[in-house]
Specification:
The structure is a single chain. The chain has nine helices and 30 strands. It is of the alpha+beta class. The strands form six sheets. A six-stranded mixed beta sheet has the order 26-25-27-30-28-29, sandwiched between helices. It has a five-stranded antiparallel beta sheet with strand order 1-4-5-12-11. The relative contact order is 0.12.
Length: about 475
């Protein structure tokens, strides 16, 4: 059984914008092909790689109703049947009463309240794109027209806003985990892989490719399009170097520096090139889900710069989520009829779209996102969320085991418009394992006994839903 760890996940299909801050005048907003005239003194800005817009732009240019409460620092944005409430500095919002994670919290800058445009646009049923060359946001009205945040899933192709260069496949990201090197691309490539000596190394050439605009967001890339990925914890490999090797053929070269000669195998699927150093035979490893196996994606919410909820004593949600995901994966490895993929296996950040992309690209059978909750100090218990009717049965089964294994209050199964459960096409649920804002819940969530019991419960639920004995 294969594990991609946090590998395939480096598709940069989130609204990640290179750079830290651009002048307000540099950022344009195009709605259905027409540029929005932004109010004087209230223009969009690219702050910490996120496009933020003053609430005046939301109300005057996009036509949404905005209610700002100075005392509580709360902004409510509404249109048709959708109401979004956000609090300055908080990375959780509510959409029609349901909690939703934000990729960037609202902020106040020079007396102006700024809110994340991508989040608002998507929740209002818009398709959001970004052109880094022209610093332009594109908003396209979806055909669904419901305005309730349940937008039509993106079509195939380049969805991350990178400008696709004609005839070229984009390299979106790379990773090294479990002695495997992964290259995430926007489409099918024809890698030329060979070895060299003095020193020993494996070379991967990808013709007709280009670095995506967003590649430099997660990886070093200098002005000459050279960089390297330092590899720790694997004695066979010290680093992976990469560069635009041949401009005339648009060939990107990756070089895996080895401590000694080593065999490998190559797997090349649409969107993923995998160099497996564990496979000495050189024969391709079986594809994920081969031999009739069910494919389960386990998503540990948040990560890296996004800690998620912060507990009463300072414990971080992202750490709980990852610990649970790793325990679930360890148990699923023992199941011969299941292939398990983690969206992240360490403290890595993924945009919500990236998490969905992982599951979509490997045709997962089910998607399970693991989280911990936050709310009033008295709030306690577990709950399970789903967004589409096809996921309701999975939600009911998983929640049954979540309640039993956790021993916490049953808060029920709920339907909510959450990105990872809404945009996936397979049955998908989000599990909330308890409240970090509750002192009692927080204390138990970080115990080995609780985590092991809940991990067993999650696996039992997965097996029951998939009909695996």
């Amino acid at each position: 059984m294969k594990k991609f760890g946090f590998l395939v996940l480096l598709f940069v299909f989130g609204f990640v914008l290179p750079g830290y801050s651009h002048a307000a005048a540099d950022t344009h907003i195009i709605l259905d092909g027409k540029e929005i005239v932004q109010p004087s003194g209230a223009k969009a800005e690219n702050i910490d790689s996120k496009v933020m817009v003053p609430i005046r732009v939301v109300s005057e240019s996009l036509g949404y109703s905005v209610d700002w409460k100075q005392q509580s620092q709360t902004v409510t944005i509404s249109k048709d049947n959708t109401a979004i409430q956000m609090i300055v500095g908080k990375k959780k919002a509510t959409v029609n009463g349901s909690n939703v994670d934000l990729d960037a919290p609202p902020l106040v800058k020079k007396g102006t309240t700024l809110v994340p445009l991508r989040f608002i646009g998507e929740q209002m049923g818009l398709k959001v794109g970004w052109n880094n060359t022209t610093k332009t946001v594109t908003l396209v009205t979806q055909n669904s027209g419901s305005g309730n945040g349940t937008t039509t899933p993106p079509s195939s192709g380049n969805q991350d806003g990178d400008t696709e260069q004609e005839g070229l496949v984009l390299v979106n990201g790379i990773s090294f985990s479990d002695n495997r090197f992964i290259i995430a691309t926007s489409g099918l490539t024809k890698p030329n892989v060979f070895t060299m000596t003095g020193p020993d190394r494996i070379v991967i050439d990808l013709p007709n490719t280009a670095f995506a605009d967003s590649f430099s967001q997660g990886h070093a890339l200098d002005n000459n399009q050279n960089g390297q990925l330092v590899v720790d914890g694997y004695p066979d490999v010290s680093r992976v170097r990469y560069s635009l090797f041949d401009n005339s053929s648009s060939t990107i070269r990756f070089v895996i520096d080895l401590s000694s000669a080593k065999g490998y195998s190559v797997q090349n699927d649409s969107g993923v090139v995998l160099i497996d150093l564990n496979n000495q035979s050189g024969t391709p490893a079986p594809p994920v889900g081969g031999n009739g196996k069910k494919v389960v994606v386990i998503d540990a919410g948040h990560g890296n710069q996004d800690p998620g909820a912060i507990g009463v004593t300072g414990k971080r949600e992202k750490d709980f989520n990852l610990a649970m995901a790793l325990k679930v994966e360890a148990l699923l490895k023992k199941e011969s009829k299941i292939d398990t993929i983690l969206t992240r296996s360490d403290d890595t950040f993924l945009a919500l779209k990236e998490r969905v992309k992982v599951a979509q690209d490997i045709n997962a059978d089910i998607f399970i996102s693991i989280h911990a909750n936050s709310g009033p100090a008295a709030a306690t218990g577990v709950e399970t969320f789903y967004s589409r009717s096809v996921s309701k049965e999975l939600a009911n089964v998983m929640h049954k085991y979540l309640v039993k294994s956790s021993g916490l209050k049953d808060r029920g199964v709920k339907m909510a418009s959450l990105h990872v459960t809404r945009e996936t096409t397979m049955p998908a649920v989000l599990l909330e394992g308890g409240f970090l804002s509750n002192k009692s819940d927080e204390a138990v969530l970080f115990t080995e006994t609780f985590q092991n019991n809940v991990a067993k419960g999650i696996v039992a639920g997965i097996k029951e839903y998939l009909g695996i004995q």
